[in-house]
Amino acid sequence: MxxxxxxxxxxxxxxxxxxxxxxxxxxxxxxxxxxxxxxxPFVDAKDYPEDVDIVxxxxxxxxxxxxxxxxxxxxxxxxxVSFGDCAVTGNxxxxxxxxxxxxxxxxxxxxxxxxxxxxIPQELGIxxxxxxxxxxxxxxxxxxxxxxxxxxxxxxxxxxLEPLLRGEKPQLExxxxxxxx
Length: 181
Ligand code: SF4
Description:
Structural class: alpha/beta
Largest sheet: 5 strands, parallel
Strand content: 15-25%
Strand order of the largest sheet: 2-1-3-5-7
Radius of gyration: 17 Å
Order of helices and strands: EHHEEEHEHHEEHH
Number of domains: 1
Mean pLDDT: 96
CATH topology: Rossmann fold
CATH architecture: 3-Layer(aba) Sandwich
Low-confidence stretches: none
CATH superfamily: NADH:ubiquinone oxidoreductase-like, 20kDa subunit
Shape: globular
Bound molecules: iron/sulfur cluster
Number of strands: 7
Distance between the termini: 37 Å
Number of helices: 7
């Protein structure tokens, strides 16, 4: 049987969802026996490849780079999993939205809170501009599976991945698998 192409992506999140993924511990060996890790913060791949079977997307869409990358991910992936509360709702990453736009957030962080010589980081092509509003993944592209949690614990991640590896859609039900936070 052909090995599945598997990816994980880190957008506007704290990486806690990826840390929880590592809590899968020895089951990671089972996963590694069935898939090729083609793109992830855990592997050294620079470009998101074509024909990915399953991708876990951590984090909300918070800057222009996320916006471009999520479109590419959608075009090149069969099953896109919104991985964790930031991806599903915006969650912590979207806490800045009440400021109304990116500018007051940058001013507060890099000018008002600076100890010396405050300066807003900006370098065309290197520092992606923040979007004025942080949005969840499904507001930009279609999502196939929602995996809530901040972070989703390892059991919940496994409960979603096992059916996906068999080519089935996960049936996550009840507080154990669908609770936010
Ligand atoms: Fe971090 Fe929670 Fe967001 Fe995951 S859902 S990226 S753990 S804040």
